[in-house]
Amino acid sequence: DAGVTQSPTHLIKTRGQQVTLRCSPISGHKSVSWYQQVLGQGPQFIFQYYEKEERGRGNFPDRFSARQFPNYSSELNVNALLLGDSALYLCASSPGGLAWETQYFGPGTRLLVL
Amino acid sequence: GESVGLHLPTLSVQEGDNSIINCAYSNSASDYFIWYKQESGKGPQFIIDIRSNMDKRQGQRVTVLLNKTVKHLSLQIAATQPGDSAVYFCAENSAGGTSYGKLTFGQGTILTVHP
C-alpha cells in the first residue's frame, strides 16, 4: 500500500509570493495534519483536518491556511512568504485524527524562500 | 507550556552495541508517546509508541520505557546497526482538553553508528 504522498518535493519561491503544497493520505485515513520542520528542530504542528473540517490549529499566522477535499487529500497554502517560512513541510495522516492514533508522515516538501 | 525535550543531542555507538536515547516531557496530562526516526531528506518514520497506562513496550530490536513519576521516556535499540543512524524524535500527544491528535516534538537526538 502507498504511504502518505506529498508534492512537490522541492520548491523555490521569493518573498511575498504564495505557495500551495499538496498531500494525499494513506488509503482509508480520513485525517491529515500539517507540520513545519525548520532545519535542526523537531516538527511543529500547523493544522489538523478531519472530514474536511479544521479540528486544530497551531501557533501560526493567518498567512497559513489549509483545506481538505472529499477524497481526504489536502492542500496547505502560505501567502506573503517570508524568509523564515523556509522549511520542510510535512503531512501526516491517521485514520480518525484522534489523540491516541499513530500519525504517519510523508516525505515532505522542502520550501526555500529567497 | 507543553514541551518535550531530549537530554542528549548526539549519540555515537559502535555497531552491535545497545543504544539508549532519552526524552523528558513536561505535560503530565500527556497520555500517548511516540518515537520517530528521521533519515536525511525523509519524513519521520514511526518506530514505536506507548500509552500512559503502560511502563514498557517492546518491538523488534526496540523497547520504549515510560516513567510517569519523573516524566521520562527512553528508547532502547538493541544490537545497533549502521542503518539505525538517523535523528530520533520523541513526541507526545496530549489528549488533555482535546481529542484530536496534535504531536509535540522534541529537538531530536542524532544517533551515529560506527561500523
Helix count from the secondary structure assignment of chain B = 0
Query: Strand-residue fraction of chain B?
Result: over 45%
Give the overall pLDDT of chain A as a whole number: 95
- Give the helices and strands of chain B as they follow along the chain: EEEEEEEEEEE
The radius of gyration of chain A is: 13 Å
Helix content of chain B: under 10%
Quick one: how many beta strands of chain B? Answer: 11
Question: What characteristic shape of chain A results from the CA principal axes?
Answer: globular
The major beta sheet of chain B can be summarized as: 6 strands, mixed
Uncertain segments of chain B are none
Report, as a whole number of angstroms, the end-to-end distance of chain A. 37 Å
- Rg of chain B, rounded, reads 14 Å
Estimated structural class of chain B: mainly beta
Oligomeric status: heterodimer
Tally of strands of chain A: 11
Task: Report the total helices of chain A.
Answer: 0
Q: How does this model look, in words?
A:
The complex is a heterodimer of chains A (114) and B (115). Helices cover 0% and strands 50% of the residues of chain A. Chain A is mostly beta strands. In chain A, strands 2, 4, 5, 6, 9, 10 and 11 form a seven-stranded mixed β-sheet that branches. In chain A, strands 1-3-8-7 form a four-stranded antiparallel β-sheet, with no helix packed on it. In chain A, β7 (64-68) and β8 (74-78) form a beta hairpin. The mean pLDDT of chain A is 95. By secondary structure, chain B is mainly β. Chain B is built from no helices and eleven strands. In chain B, strands 2, 4, 5, 9, 10 and 11 form a six-stranded mixed β-sheet that branches. Chain B has a five-stranded antiparallel β-sheet with strand order 1-3-8-7-6, with no helix packed on it. In chain B, β7 (62-67) and β8 form a beta hairpin. Chain A binds chain B through residues 4, 31, 33, 35, 40-45, 48, 50, 55-56, 58, 90, 92, 94, 97-108, and chain B through 4, 31-32, 34, 36, 41-46, 49, 51, 89, 91, 93-95, 98-108.
